[in-house]
Amino acid sequence: MLTIGTLARRTGTKVQTIRYYEQVGLMPEPGRSEGGQRRYGDAELDRLSFIRHARQLGFPLDAIRELLNLSDHPNRPCAEADEIARRQLRQVEQRLARLEALRTELQRMVRECSGGRTADCRVLEVLRDHSECLTDHENAGT
Amino acid sequence: MLTIGTLARRTGTKVQTIRYYEQVGLMPEPGRSEGGQRRYGDAELDRLSFIRHARQLGFPLDAIRELLNLSDHPNRPCAEADEIARRQLRQVEQRLARLEALRTELQRMVRECSGGRTADCRVLEVLRDHSECLTDHENAGT
DNA sequence: GCTACATGCTCTAGCTGCTGTAGGTTCAAC
DNA sequence: GTTGAACCTACAGCAGCTAGAGCATGTAGC
Q: What is the C-alpha to C-alpha distance for residues B142 and B125, in angstroms, rounded to an integer?
């Protein structure tokens, strides 16, 4: 039986995050000690590892919920899990494309800055005048 | 004199977003009509365009605040603006590297999935067992 | 058995950067 | 004068946590 702190250390998760996962229904409500402290078993350790790993791969919590659901039904076809992963892959690819455009633009700004006064700063100039940009970068960033 | 709605349309910003920028001090408190509605001039139009453009390039609001500050002091050296842009570029490059690792891993998962039952699903299997991963992908995702 | 202290508990607020809604007011055209 | 679009303030909510307050429990040493 593991305390929440031990579970946290084993999975590289913060204690509060585990409680948060419980709150949003990703982790089950665990058993409690006589004094009311959470006690976890190996199943929960596996489940949390799964969640953390999926998070590291950028899956949103909703997708992880679906994946966990599928994982609980070994006889169902895996097309759904496959589709979730593909969706995530598409997302990642889209973000990559946007970030690459941003990188290009930022590199250009930085390269052209000659280090004078802010009045002549290329960085500020480009920001002031969108038409100086080579690439599209709408909805970018985050 | 522009109303907030016109300013919003001209800059591709939502009205609420403009009010939000005012609230967090990115936009100045504008003049008001007799009835208390905001009225903007060209300076504000430029300032908001600057903000939006910087946001499209992924600069966080704090960085934009600094950039605007620098922009208001044309005689100061532009090293600071340059540094802010470089910092942003580094951020973008880091995110790119992480996302590329994610893409690799997701591609592998998807490619190896043979479309059987979830019990044998590669996607779920990889998520269950971190050691199957080729790349590092810690702190990834968002 | 007692004390000290790490760890646990719940609850609430805060982070970023907006976005949406409720319930009311102003403006401009007709 | 009346309509209807656009405006106003104030506040709640999104994701995915994270941090803190104020208190309870668990455990190790003595």
A: 23
